[in-house]
Amino acid sequence: MNILLAVLLLPLLALAQSSSSSGNAPSGSSSGSSQPPASSSSSAPASTAFTTIVSTAISSIPTIIVSGGNRVETTIVSTSVFSTVEAITTGGSGSSSNASTSSSSSTSSSPLPTAPTNVNGGGQGGAPFPGASGANGAFGPDDGTFMSALDSPEVKRPKMIKTIGTHNGTFHCDEALAVFMLRQTSTYRDAQLKRTRDPAVLATCDIVVDVGAVYDESKQLFDHHQRGFTEVFGHGFETKLSSAGLVYKHFGQEIIANRVQLPVSDSKVNVLWLKVYKVVIIVCLDVSSQLKLSAKEFIEAIDAIDNGISQYPTDIKPRYRNRTDLSSRVGALNPWWNQSTDAQTVDGLFEKASALTGQEFLGKLDYYANAWLPARDLLIASVSASKKAVDPSGKIILFEQFLPWKEHLFELEADESVADIQPGQAIYVIYPDETAGNWRVQAVPLTPESFESRKALPEVWRGLRDEELSKASGIDGGIFIHASGFIGGNKTKEGALKIAQKALEM
Ligand SMILES: *[C@@H]1O[C@H](CO)[C@@H](O)[C@H](O)[C@H]1NC(C)=O
Ligand SMILES: *[C@@H]1O[C@H](CO)[C@@H](O)[C@H](O)[C@H]1NC(C)=O
Ligand SMILES: *[C@@H]1O[C@H](CO)[C@@H](O)[C@H](O)[C@H]1NC(C)=O
Ligand SMILES: *[C@@H]1O[C@H](CO)[C@@H](O)[C@H](O)[C@H]1NC(C)=O
User: Low complexity bias located where (predicted)?
Assistant: First the structure.
């Protein structure tokens, strides 16, 4: 065994030395360096050589490890060493077609084992220590890779690639998204996938979703098909969960925190976690019922479909079935009746489906994180500013720019931690109508979906336009007041404000 390891170590040390001899001391230097990074084309021939050396070394590793017993697999080991070589050539940019095409099917693009950047690589004279980090990535496997190999016959691998198990055959939206989401966690990032119904194979997986008839987080088993399964998301959501809902319930906060780069404990992560659970994916009916249906939201909709729960209140019948929603699009990726259903083909299609659900999921998450949530902050700021400058009672809120305010307002009114926004306080909001260059006064509705207002604009002004309105209201420049009194317009901000102020007194 020691001989084999020596065979492995020597070429790697030689490799590290040759890369350092062509540049500056590897640690520290970054953008200011005049030396091209390791990924420049000039180093390409050398990197090809490295690949050859290391893959020779790799092939000896499985011999060592398999003798250690348990469920270690040779492909996994060869992958992690191979990825290291990739970092040398590409500067650690993550995935590369090289790694995935020339290694086994279990190859991953997982981040490399990198040493801390403060390790002194040796510079001019000596070779960098194994694991030393250059400006552009690691020079070699970190010390732990070697040390653990030397330490114990069982070989602890610091970056073992995990395996997710799910069922084979026809796939659905829920496990496709579940697998995608798991791969957004630090534990299962770049995990490989086994699609099977064979319990013996599933037992070798690190986590199993949508198959196995067990839900037990402590064992990382997440099926929802078994009799007696009743798990719901909670927080006001009572729909039974699909495997996507289950994974989202347990891993969603981490996934969101990773994506938005905030600590899991940040309250924004929690807000997004609840929000994305509800995001709309089904918009299938004509415009009039669309508003009602939009209360059904993303994962909840997936859960509902997967559990066979009707998405529609029973008295509303869809005129036609929308075949472009996410579940339908995932379903359509399954093999056609006359296409091959061999495991390799279907597994490939599943990966496509998983990527599709992931794109949709991250798209929604990004929208809620980067557009929806900032609007919430702006609303809070506008309420404070309006209390100072417009209306101390908080009944009129002025937005200097349009923003989606309604849903936030109701949620913030219900949130006791936001002292500035009291339930029922806001009566009118004023905002610019960017397309027409006018300003609008909108009456706050009783509920987000209601057409009834807390205090509609005065009856005597309703249905009037222009001159007529200016005369009736005594406010020049009036544009219109809607017949139902929920919205009105004026050419200027001041005019709109006057409408609101006057309406409050009537
Ligand atoms: C691997 O990378 C090298 C250098 O970047 C490139 O020339 C070669 O075509 C790649 N091989 C594969 C199989 O992608
Ligand atoms: C699923 O996998 C099992 C074994 O794991 C196999 O017997 C079965 O034929 C596969 N089913 C489909 C539909 O591919
Ligand atoms: C069908 O639903 C999708 C998303 O769920 C939506 O984007 C699309 O506009 C809908 N199509 C029709 C015709 O309603
Ligand atoms: C499936 O059947 C249709 C109709 O016969 C044919 O046009 C199509 O090429 C077939 N597809 C495959 C993959 O065999």
Answer: 95-110, 129-140
Structure tokens at 374: 């900032």
Distance CA 208, CA 22 (A): 47
- Note whether 157 and 75 are within 8 A (CB): no
| Number of the ligand 2 atom closest to the C-alpha atom of 197 | 5
Question: 418 and 491 share a domain?
Answer: yes
More confident residue, 162 or 318: 162
Ligand nearest to the CA of 339: 4
Amino acid, single-letter form, for residue 380? I
User: Could you give the CA distance from residue 464 to residue 384 in angstroms, rounded to a whole number?
Assistant: 32
Are 382 and 442 in a shared domain? yes
Cβ count within 10 A of residue 52:
10
The answer to whether the CB of 150 is under 6 A from ligand 1 is no
Are 400 and 351 found together in one domain? no
CA-44 nearest atom, ligand 1: 4
Instruction: Report which bound ligand comes closest to the CA of 202.
Output: 2
Q: Residue 257 is part of which domain span?
A: 163-333+342-357
Residues in contact with ligand 2 by the CB-under-6-Å rule are 168-169, 196-198, 343
Ligand 3 center–CA 88 separation, angstroms: 46
| % of the chain beyond a pLDDT of 90 | 34
SS3 assignment, position 394: coil
Same domain, residue pair 323 and 206: yes
Q: Is 86 in the pocket of ligand 3 (CB under 6 A)?
A: no
The mean pLDDT value for 1-18 works out to 43
Same domain for 255 and 222: yes
Look at the chain and report how many structural domains it folds into. Answer: 2
In angstroms, what is the span from residue 167 Cα to ligand 2's centroid? Answer: 9
Q: Is the whole-model pTM more than 0.85?
A: no
Higher pLDDT, 7 or 482: 482
Read off the pLDDT band of 159 (50, 70, 90): low
Whether residues 202 and 291 fall in one domain: yes
314 and 201 part of one domain: yes
133-134/396-398 β-pairing: unpaired
The closest-lying atom of ligand 2 relative to the alpha carbon of residue 167 is 1
